[in-house]
Write a structure and sequence with these properties.
about 625 residues; 5-stranded mixed sheet; 28 strands; globular
């Protein structure tokens, strides 16, 4: 049965049906290529049909939630497609999340079935039936692969993605097929997608950008390529992989994109568009970059993308790039506290309406009512709008500036974080009498989390214990970088936590724990300087772990590059994960230097020693 979308009267065709059309047209074309295998359109059609039939035999029907707990892979694509073909809605689960968080999401979503790798089956089973899919998908061999005739309607649920919640628990966002189809139509039209395109799957499985990477590619007949995990956060290696694989359209999270656009790009690059989003973009591409950089904005509640715009080429401009204009099928309003429109150039809260707006939050009617409102803006009739809590303003050219948040929600490495969720869990830890979480910025402008903790009497003040306890419940990007010990939380006259007082330098400096061991030689001293500058700290201890100090894989790649520039050695990124302290890094660098010195002439060795002395000074 054909449905008509409310957006423009065009025939409604869900993404799984559009994929099947492509599979019939070009069965032998590559649909997905990943480290775990390559599938043609015909093979992906067959395997997803088999999975759909397995799910239907387990009682899956329209809108049944199915957990999808797989890393970036060809199997992930089979899982998502098979769930939609069975009429179900997939619940995006990142296998890197703590087991307790995954268990909550499975239970909260009502997922009676979870699709996972065999190695993850035990960790996610709970009360759900687990379908363990091996890379060869041999577990599906007994199922028939005949096409299915499930009729998805525009208002049927397509997927659920969890975001951070202010109450201490993540909240599931419900997105319908019509909203997903609107995103796909806009994308494929705007970026002229065709069967000749080669796209990427790079975002984390629990991040809504995966939705954007996956469905436009498969519905356009393009081929989707998954890079090896060790390349995904290494800017130079990722650039080379994009070039070598002839990628034409890619999405990179903001922090990674800002680094990659600063690299030298070979003329042979096939890349047409680099899409970015998830955080505030501060950098523009230079004139030598052979592709268009497109900055995008959109909350999960508005189906990934709300506004989009090409970033003009000018690497030396100090003007922050805009977040573009609303995409097709979406309308926006910028309003004051009384929901009255503000003038061009004035700051207000962004409200989103149209085809991209989600159904609401799963099992949270109170929050859904508060954030998804029916309101008339100005003289316009009442429509359904999502209140983003984001502060923006119109530029004279109609594009938007993003200026921050109305509430305490922040972005950490492109992921949306409610400070209240972290605070709730932190305040439940043994030895914590009171705690709040806030953010600071390092010199590069990247947000990082800081916990201010009032310990219970005689409690041990050990940040590592708190980190380990939080890691059982929270993903890594939600664990504070620093823990500051206070005798009491500073309060305003009204009895609320005085966050401005928390940020006062004297409070932090008097309360911060010891910095760890001092460097024992010039090599360690240079490394301490490099690491501290990169993390935006005054100093670091030689025995402190780079990652517990706030480092992550992208910063790690920058650290390896700086070490290479300083010492003239080539360290693989893996070295940092195996040796994350300055002491351990120094040993690795020293071994490489000794090997190079052995192969050098006396004159070359003397020059190297002098240059290292200059670096230390």
């Amino acid at each position: 049965m054909a449905h008509t979308s409310a957006r423009d009267g065009a025939p409604f065709e869900p993404v799984q049906d559009r994929f099947s059309v492509q599979a019939r047209r070009r069965p032998d074309a590559v649909a997905v290529s990943a480290p775990d295998g390559t599938l043609t359109y015909a093979q992906l059609e067959k395997r997803s049909n088999q999975l759909a039939r397995r799910l239907m035999a387990l009682g899956v029907t329209r809108e049944t939630p199915i957990g999808l707990c797989l890393e970036r892979s060809a199997v992930l694509v089979v899982g998502a497609l098979g769930i939609l073909k069975a009429g179900g809605a997939y619940v995006a689960l990142d296998p890197s999340y703590p087991a307790e968080r995954l268990e909550f999401m499975i239970r909260d979503s009502g997922s009676r079935v979870v699709i996972a790798r065999p190695s993850l089956a035990r960790a996610v089973r709970g009360s759900a039936t687990v379908i363990a899919l091996d890379p060869g998908l041999t577990t599906l061999d007994t199922e028939t692969s005949d096409p299915l005739s499930i009729d998805s309607r525009p208002d049927d649920l397509a997927y659920v993605i969890y975001t951070s919640g202010s109450t201490g628990l993540p909240k599931g966002v419900l997105v319908e097929h019509a909203s997903l189809v609107n995103l796909v139509r806009w994308h494929n039209s705007t970026f002229s997608m065709s069967e000749t395109d080669r796209t990427t799957l790079i975002a984390s499985p629990g991040f809504d950008a995966v939705v954007w990477e996956l469905w436009p590619s498969l519905t356009a007949g393009a081929s989707l390529h998954v890079p090896p995990d060790d390349l995904r956060t290494d800017p130079v290696a990722l650039r080379d992989w994009l070039v070598d694989n002839g990628i034409t359209v890619t999405f990179l999270p903001t922090a990674l994109a800002e680094t990659v656009i600063g690299l030298d790009w070979p003329v042979r690059s096939s890349l047409r568009y680099m899409l970015t989003g998830g955080d505030a973009l501060h950098r523009r591409p230079g004139t030598s970059v052979p592709f268009m950089l497109v900055n995008n904005y959109g909350p999960t509640e508005a189906t990934v993308v709300t506004t989009s715009g090409v970033v003009p080429v000018d690497a030396f401009s100090d003007e922050v790039p805009s977040i573009g204009k609303p995409i097709e099928g979406v309308h926006i309003h910028i309003v004051d506290e009384d929901l009255n429109p503000v003038a061009t150039g004035e700051v207000g809260e962004l409200l989103i309406g149209g085809a991209g707006v989600a159904r609401g939050y799963l099992n949270r009617p109170d929050l859904t009512t508060a954030r998804f409102v029916h309101a008339g803006v100005g003289e316009q009739e009442s429509v359904r709008l999502y209140r983003t809590g984001d502060l923006v303003r119109f530029r004279p050219d109609g594009e938007l500036d993003f200026l921050g948040r109305v509430d305490e929600q922040v972005k950490i490495r492109g992921q949306r974080v409610e400070l209240g969720e972290i605070e709730t869990i932190l305040n439940g830890q043994p030895g914590v009498r009171a705690a709040v979480v806030d953010t600071t910025k390092n010199p590069s402008g990247e947000q990082r989390l800081v916990a201010y903790v009032v310990p219970a009497e005689e409690a041990q003040r050990d940040p590592e214990i708190l980190r380990k306890n939080l890691a059982r419940k929270l993903p890594s990007h939600m664990i504070p970088v620093e823990f500051v010990w206070l005798p009491e939380l500073p309060l305003t006259a009204g009895g609320k936590v005085d966050r401005k007082a928390l940020a006062m330098p004297e409070v932090v400096s008097l309360s911060r724990p010891a910095d760890g061991s001092a460097p024992r030689n010039e090599l360690e001293a240079v490394l301490v300087t490099i690491v501290a500058e990169l993390l935006g700290l005054d100093t670091v201890g030689t025995d402190q772990n780079f990652f517990t100090l706030g480092g992550h894989s992208l910063l790690g790649a920058q650290l390896i590059a700086r070490i290479g520039d300083t010492f003239g050695v080539e360290l693989p990124l893996r070295t940092l994960f195996d040796h994350p302290t300055v002491t351990d890094m120094a040993v690795e660098v020293e071994q490489l230097l000794v090997a190079e010195l052995t192969a050098m002439s006396d004159e070359e060795a003397e020059r190297l020693a002098r240059s290292l002395g200059d670096s230390a000074a």
